[in-house]
Each structure stands twice: as structure tokens, then as C-alpha cells.
Write a structure and sequence with these properties.
6 copies of one chain form a homohexamer. The first copy, chain A, is α/β, with parallel strands linked by helices. Chain A is about 35% helix and about 25% strand. In chain A, the strands form 2 sheets. In chain A, strands 2, 3, 4, 5, 6, 7, 8, 11 and 12 form a 9-stranded mixed β-sheet that branches. Chain A has a two-stranded antiparallel ribbon with strand order 9-10. In chain A, helix 4 (about 120-125) links the parallel strand 6 (about 110-115) and strand 7. Chains in contact: A-B, A-C, A-E, A-F, B-C, B-D, B-E, C-D, C-F, D-E, D-F, E-F.
Chain lengths: ~230, ~230, ~230, ~230, ~230, ~230
């Protein structure tokens, strides 16, 4: 790995990004055939944020946030910074100063497979972060990494320009070229869910609504009354 | 294990269930002689809920929520769905559609040794969940498990009809036949605590209130002034 | 280890403790040259508390809270109880009764490398706790430990009388004799950050503000336009 | 839980125990319909041992091995001691002295959801142990637990007299009354595997031997040649 | 993700694969600029194996080994099967029957981000496996995944045909097109290490051999004699 | 923390170090009143080594082994290098070249709260290591730490010159000034154990040998025959 910063304009269409933000993580993930999720250890620092944006990727070294400074210059309005690390690390690579800078450049959120700090201020700023840990541990600026190269972040492959969707359920990566298709499928799925929700709320069973009884019986499911006293 | 669904009417008395809901997890657990707790990795998806109900148990397969659909038919008003899994798994087996259905059948909560998703909506619905993880990971409906068999959930043995008590401190299982006794002991314990709280609040030391000084001395505890500069 | 309770008056100056409370964990940690942090698994039971106080230390046994009762007698107004354990343990060693007692003695918070319970009540009381776990698991009073001896708590060395600073970012230990120096450095650091925050908010890049470009180039960082279609 | 020691003669038939020892963990587990396994964190302290025996169960307190001393009196030749703990704990509750005693009473192994120590000596003695951890941490003898009550050990329910099977793959619990049936099924399964092994070794594919191709196609599996350069 | 099996002939040159096997994991990883490593939780089931081979990739579902059967048909002599899973899972997806089949087709090893069983037999067969866990937990054949698609396995991106190098230090992935370059760099690195090893063995310090003293001094390192009694 | 290297001659008496090596970890730990143990995640890279030596301490940065090179100059014959890290890190900071150098200077082992690599060669060299992880992950030489300052390593406080005892049970730290006392107590303890071992091997119960029956009865232990069919 030769340290490199790639300048790129690749982004998905804003309307597709907006659509994915609206449907959220679980629906986007289902619309992709159940792929693209980051590991569930990635948690928001506060509840309630739901965003989507284009990934500016960072490959950082453990305990070192130098490349985050480098990456912010590559951020365009609406982007999300995605920080992967060359090894498992929970140090607080990002705090309120970096958030101030990232926000000033138009960045709308941070996804970091490491630690974050100043979380009270970040919440006050309304700057959403999904991270592996909250940690005050300070970092150095000593070793190069890369910006806008493909990275594996929390178990998911992220290319620069991919659409990141994040909410209280976690983080999912939608490949840039699939954003339009996924957004379309996701919207259709949501529409269908509305009708299902109504039927289930009225007391109809999923067993009947999804016509599962035959399949269960064929698979060998047996019903029995409790005879035990 | 032959997959089976047991139909059962076994429930503890509603008044005992209500009493256990009122005293909460820690007191119920103490009243049982410090038994019945699930592992502390079981956390509520939002703070503040405190419930009790009768367990409808599910033994699910990893990445598969088929049996949750089956189990909902067995739920009666006031019940809590308790989902164990045949192996450690964090997939999002339960979301807002299942919650809508479970709620429509009278279910008052979910305890799941796996993942849950749509947590923002669940919170809006006021549907409480205690889970091992929050994860958007979608599941299949392919392999049978069982409903209303005894299960080990998060380290605790649960029989169908046992009383589940859950609050911000975690989840405890009160065996159905012991519910009345435990409720009675718990209430007595609570009454005693009120008096203790008053005395401690006035500055009395636990050392004196519990008469510990003699026991500590006998065990060999030594007091010394700090001589170190 | 012979079980012992050390009576001590060692405390840092109240003004320094107050100053550290104001700057919080991350800044105090940076001011100490990036040392003194507890592991990031130490989390507050509710968001928003930010405190500092003098450590009264406890070395407890697993599943045993006897020494916490002993320690409360040694607490003076403004102190923080710091509980270490001789092995990894998540049992609920501390609940609302102990909090009532500790608060009555002037204690302002608890830092415990074990579990805590009654967290809903603790939140209502406004009594802040940083812990390894939330667990209803009850404990015994059977085996001696020590009070006000040096302990390793969540990876950090704590001497009695050291200043504990805790907020949403975690917990840091400032050695008693260094409190004044650290407070002074921390305040200076904060003052500098204000100016940086203003510049970053106006869109200036960290790359320029910190004059990083030359160092990055010297280290070998290369910029390249995306040629990939 | 009132502390109690149950004296019991319940054991499975020696021939069934011997048969289960011979087939080992994975086959026994499959013969039970894929149930009864302890969590995979239970590992042998040395490779190569493969045993079965009747469970004498212990419910211990964290950091306390008093009840192990009590339990050894209840051990009969061929038994395996199974130690569960009321909470997660890795302390070294068992070492070479206890092993000497347990062996002298006819015990053939230990399964402990906690720590073990003196592992070099245990290996020299040829005394097999499956544990959650290896730890030198010493324990006290201060708090009662129980012997020969049902316990949950490493996620599996164990009744006194159940057959424990343990080898390099882990530990499985065969309910006493099912031992004969499981042994019979397991032997049959082994016989079938011999033939399968021969065919696979000759190069026949599982796809053909198990006739999977039709099922895969029906499920929608597609084959494609790599067109990518 | 539409389930798919890609048939491909892509392989690196046998001589490069052999060279990488010879230098092993740490040297290959360094030769790649410190990239390509799987997480260190991937451990060999027995010590001493050191191999390299071309990746045939599998994306499996939790608790389901259907696609491993499918994948074996795609294995050519010298290949290594690399199994990723759509979620964290430790079930025993692979045992001695599959090993017999894989070996018969020419497969030389398995890398699996899940569990493996029958480890005693696998060791006797001399069939090396690197896995996340050892577990007897049986699996089903119910849900499709894919074969020979790019996968993220234990944190590393693997394309079909990439060279997998595995030994007691772990597992590294060398992209197919970089195999020749990496092998060349690795060999050179090894040659240099021989000379370094000789000098260090003679007592020369790394401080001098690598000429570090000036850099350390410039960075601010201070030497001091211990004045403390 | 200002980076510093302390030159020191402090060592315990060679005869005490030898005695501690002979009794091993568990006995030394008991002789110290059950203190001084490192966390049980510290495991030997191969079984069977049992050593003691004087600690030369290192405080390293994550992913950075610069200070290990610095520390080797401070090692005297018989010493053990003890590497702590400012944060949790598993990178392979130490391999066969450093082992060659450390051995050439008289170092007899390594205890590292991070990763180690080249483990096959280290085993061939007979150079024992206790570590948190095995990982091929390469490190940089970019950021200063300290040598021969007090460190917290794997949960234990270590001062330069303290005696480190390590074997298959783990690692324990004996403070330099207590080495003679601890060695004496440990030897006495071992002598007593010989007699106990003989009695237990002859079938005498611990219950009787330690005269536990009265204490158990007083604590409330009840014996009952199994009445259950």
C-alpha cells in the first residue's frame, strides 16, 4: 500500500441518496438482497439521526488521525466521512474540532471503525457519528494512510462514492452504481409494508398473510397440546 | 430435537405478574435467592420500560425468524415473547412488522437472545425489547425450530408460562409456580428497603445499620492512618 | 495483600478539581500527555453528567460488595468512589441504597469496574455512575478487600486522593500532585481550541491551520486524480 | 435458591456412556438433533482427550470454590464434575490438588464454566479439563452454592446424571434417559459416514452423493463463467 | 445479492504461490506494504502448517454449509477454500467428510470465518484449517449463498484466484495480479533479514544497526539514571 | 507523559528469582495474598515454559514498536521484557529478529500486552513469549513511548525491576522488595501441598482434610436424598 489521496467526483444521484436516507438502513439492506451491512458493533453516539451521503474513505493507522485531516479537504457538501483502520483500534480519532471542520465543508456525518470523543458537544452540534467506541484517547499525526481508496470498514467493503445509509439500526453501504436500483426497490418494499402493517395491526397473523402454514407442515412442524401438569 | 409447537394455557396469576412488574428485576432476583437472571448483555432498546408477563418461548435457528411468526399465534394478552437461538447470533430477527403483529395479539414485550431492528419505530410504538444486539441484518424463513419448549435464553432457563420481569437493570425469569411466593417476598423486601433508605439518607452508615463492624473485625480488617507523605 | 482501610485526608485543591470538572475528560487527558485514561468499556449509566472529585478507592472481590459499605465511611464531601475488583466481574455491586448512603456522605459519583443496578432510580436521583456493566446480579458480604490502597481500575492506576474526571467521553485519573499543573495546561488548551474552532468553522482546513502539507509531502503522500471509470 | 446437596444414584448405563465416548461430541450432538452443545468457548486444556461420564453438577459462586470440595464427595467412579457459576467468572477454581482428589474418587474429568490452573501438572497427570479460561487467580471458600441441582453450564442445561461427552470439538450434554437412544443413533450415523467417507475420498462430489443439484437449482442457484478480465 | 457460482480459471503462477508459501505470512504481509491480513482471531487448528494456494471463495449463511458442498466442485489442485459468512457465526460448517472431499479434489487447506469440527481427525489427516472457532454445532443446507464472488473474510477482501498464505502467524491475502511482485519483494526481504539476524545474534543493537539514535533524540527521547531509592 | 528512558540497576536477588521460577505462577500468586496477576488473556505462544526474571518495562504506542528497540539496550542477562501499550492493540510488535537481539543481550522472555509474530521460529528458538494475541500485523517506528517507567500491563502494575513469573497458568508480578518474602512463603506453601497431595491421592476428602463440614453446616448447607424418579 503506497499512501495516496485520490481526488474524485464520483457520487450517486442526489435524488437516489435522498431516497435511501428516507427508507433507512434495514429497508436499503433488504433491497440489496441482504448485503452491505457493517457489523452491529457500529453504534450511533445519539439516537434519532437518519442520514445518507456519499463516502469519502480514509484508511487510518491505529492511534493516528493524520489522514482524517487530509480527507476533509476531499469532502463535498452532502458527503459522509468513512474511516477504516489497518487494525482494531478504539482511540478517539475524531472530536469536536474535526466535526466543526467537516461540517464547515459540508460533511453530514461520520462513520468510523475506531473511537470518537467530545460526544456531548457533537450531540449539541447535531453532528451524527456511528463508531465502534467512545474514547477520549488522544491520537498522533505520524504515519500515512490513504484517502479515497477502497476500504473494509467494520466488515463491509466501501468504495469512494458509494452511498452510506445510517440510522439507529446501524450502517449499510450501497454501491454507487446500484443506488438508483436499490432506491427504487426500497421504495416499492416500503409501499408493500404499509399494507402488511395495516393487516397485522388488525390481528391477522403472519402465518396467514404470508401463507406459511403449508410450508411449515411440509417441513415437518408438529403441533401438540401441553399434557404436562 | 423434533420441531414442535406446544399449545399451553399455563400462566401465573395476573396479580402476581403485576406485583413482579411493580418491584422490577433487581428485587425479584433477590427475592428468588439471587437466581434466574439473564446475562447482562441483554439490554433494553430504550430506557424506562418496566414490564412483566408470561413467557411464550421460541427456539430459533441463526439468521432465521420463521418460528417467531409461528409463535405469535400462541401469544395471549399480557404475554412476553422470549426468543432463544441454537447458537450465538445477532441478526435482526424482529422488526416493526412483527412488533405490530405481536402487539395486536396482546403481546407486551420481546426478550431476544439475538438482534432486533427498526428500533426507532419500536420506540415510537412504545414496544419494549431487550436484546443482545441491534442489527439490521435480514433473516430467512427456512429451518424449523420449536415454540413453547424449555429454552436457555442468555444463560437463563425459561419454561413456557414462567414470568419474565424486565426493566433497565435487565431480565429475570421467575418460575411460574414460584411467582406468588417470589412476589410476596419481593414486596416485603421493598417495604424494608423504604426504611433503610430513610436511615441511609439521614447519614447513618451501612456499617452501623447492618451491624457489620464486628464481622469485619473478626474477618481481620485493619484500619490504619495514612503515614505516607 | 492484607486487607486494610487507610484513613487519609489527601485531596487536591478544590479549585483545581473544579477546573478539571469544567474542562472534562478529553482535555484533561491531553493535558497530561495522553495518559491516565480508563478503558473505554467504562460507560456512564446516563448521558450528560460531567464531574470531578477525589478518589476514595476500593479493592473488591468478585460478587462481593462488603468493602463498598466500609469505604463509604471514608468518603468526604466532593469525593468519588472508585471500585476496582480483583478479577473481571460484572455483578451489580452498587444500587440505590448505597447511592443514597454515598450521597448523604457527600459523595458525588461512582466509578466501578464491575456492575451497577437500580439504574433508573440512580438516574432519577441524579447520581452519576460510570461502570463496566449494568447488572441486577446480587452480591454477598463475605470476603475482605481494602479501602484507600492504590488500585488498577479499568486499566488505570488510581491512588487515593487522585482526581477523577468523568463525563460522556469516559473516565481519566489525574494524580493528586499533578492536579494544579494539569488544570493549568488544560485551561490553556481550551483557550487555544476556541480560536481553532472559529477558524475551522469558517472553512479553513486543518491541513493549512496546522501547516501539515509539508510534513505529509515529506512523508511521501501522493495525490492522484481518479482515472478509473 | 436454598443451598443444597442432592445425593443421587442416577446414572445412564455404562455401555451407553462408553458408546458415546467412542463416537465423540460432534456425532452425539448430531444424533440428538443438533442440541445439547455447550458454547464453543469451552476448550480442552490439552488436545487429544475424548471422554464420557455422568454429570455431578456444581453451582458455584464467582471466585469461590467451596462447593467443588463438597461435590467431590458425591462423585462415583466414571463421573465427570460439571461446574457452573452464578455469573461469568474466569478465576482458577480448580488445580492439581483438587484433581488429585477427584481422580482418587474415580472422577474422569472436569467441565468448568470458569478458570482452571496448574494446567501443566494436570496434563502430566492425564486429567482432562474443558474450561472457559486458564487462570492462576486464587479463590476463597466463603459462600454456599449447590451440588447436584440442574445447572446451566456454558449455555447448556445439565441435570445430575446426564451424560457429558467431551473431546477436542467441545462438550455436549446427553440427557440421561436419552443416552441409549442417542448412542444407538450415533453408532448408526458413524457406520453411514464410513461409506460416505470412502466415496468422497474417491473423488465423488457431495453434490452428487447427496443429490443436491436439483434442490440448488430449484432454490435459484445460477452458474456463470467468469467473463471478467 | 443474487446467488451465483462463478466458474473461473484465474490463478497466480504456481512458482509465485510456492514462493509465498515459503516466506510465510508475516513476510508476505510486509512485502505488500502491511496490508491484506485477516483479523488475528483466525487461528490454525494445529501448529506447524505453512501453505499458500489460490482462493476459491464461498459466501455462506449462518448455520448453513450448503454452499461449501457447491464450492468443492470448483476447486482445482492446489486451491484453498475461503469461507466468509454473511454474519458473525461460529457453527461447525466443516468437518472430516468435507475435508476428505476437498482433499480428494486437490484442495490444500481451508480458511473459514466460522467454526470447524472433527479437529482431531483433521489433524490426523494433515489437513490444515484456519478458523474463527472450533465448534461441533451442526449446520443445515437450506439457504443459498455464492461461490467465487469477492468476499470480506475476517476483515480482508478476497477475490477468487487471490493467493492465500497461511501459517502459525495467521492468514494474508495476496491479490492475484500482485503475486509475482510480492513474491519478489518478499524474497529480497528475507535475504536481508538473514544478515540482520546474524548481526543481532552477535549482540549488535537494533538502535545501531538501524541507526535510530538520531531520530529518537530528535523526537525528544531523554535518558535518565534512576535516582529513586 | 514525557518520553523517557530510565537506566536502572534495580533487580531482586538472583536466588529469589530462581526460587520464584521454580514454584511458578499460581503458588507465587497465592504467596502474595492473591495479588499481582495479569489478566488471563495473556497466554504463552507454546506450552511448557516456566520462567522468572526482572522486568524491563516498555510503554509502547499502538502499532508502533520503536521503544522495544530502545528497551533492549537496557536489558541485562536474566531480564524479561514487559511491554504495555497506551491502548488495546494486537499488532505484531515483536518477531524473530527482535527475539534474536533480546536473547543475545541475555533476555530470557517477553511479556507483551499486544501481538507477537514469527511464533513458529520463536518456538524453535526456545524463546518464550506471553502475549494478548498472535498477529502478523507489521508496526511502524514513529512515536515515542518510555522505558523503565511503571506501567499497567494486562491489568497488573509493573515497576522496573519487579520479578515477573510466567508459566502455562499465566503471568504474575512480584514487587522487587517483596521477592524474598514471597519466595519464602511460596516454598513453605509448596512443602505443605506435598503432604496434602499425598492424603488426597489416598482418597481422603478435602471436606475432612480441611475440616470444612462444620463451617458448611453453620453456613446452612443441607443434604438431601434424590426423591425424584
Amino acid at each position: 500500500m503506497n499512501p495516496v489521496v485520490i481526488r474524485t467526483d464520483k457520487r450517486a444521484a442526489p435524488s437516489d441518496i435522498a431516497a435511501l436516507a428516507e427508507v433507512g438502513v434495514s429497508t436499503s439492506h433488504e433491497a440489496m438482497g441482504r448485503t452491505g451491512l457493517m457489523k452491529p458493533y457500529m453504534r450511533p453516539i445519539y439516537a434519532g439521526a437518519q442520514i445518507a451521503g456519499s463516502a469519502v474513505t480514509v484508511l487510518a493507522q491505529p492511534g493516528d488521525n493524520w489522514m482524517i485531516h487530509v480527507a476533509i479537504e476531499q469532502v463535498k457538501p452532502g458527503d459522509i466521512l468513512v474511516v477504516a483502520c489497518t487494525t482494531d483500534n478504539t482511540d478517539g480519532m475524531f472530536g469536536d474540532l474535526l466535526a466543526t471542520s467537516l461540517k464547515a465543508r459540508g460533511g453530514v456525518g461520520l462513520v468510523i471503525d475506531a473511537g470518537v470523543r467530545d460526544v456531548r458537544v457533537l450531540k449539541q452540534m447535531g453532528f451524527p457519528v456511528w463508531s465502534r467506541a467512545i474514547s477520549a484517547k488522544g491520537t498522533v499525526k505520524a504515519t500515512l494512510g490513504s484517502v479515497n481508496v477502497p476500504v473494509v470498514c467494520a466488515g463491509a467493503l466501501v468504495h469512494p462514492g458509494d452511498v452510506i445509509v445510517a440510522d439507529d439500526d446501524g450502517v449499510v453501504v450501497v454501491p454507487r452504481r446500484e443506488a438508483a436500483t436499490v432506491a427504487a426497490i426500497a421504495r416499492k418494499r416500503e409501499a408493500l409494508e404499509e399494507e402488511k402493517r395495516r393487516r397485522l395491526a388488525s390481528g391477522e397473523l403472519g402465518l396467514d398473510m404470508y401463507a406459511m402454514r403449508e410450508g411449515l407442515a411440509k417441513a415437518g412442524l408438529v403441533y401438540r397440546d401441553d399434557e404436562d401438569e
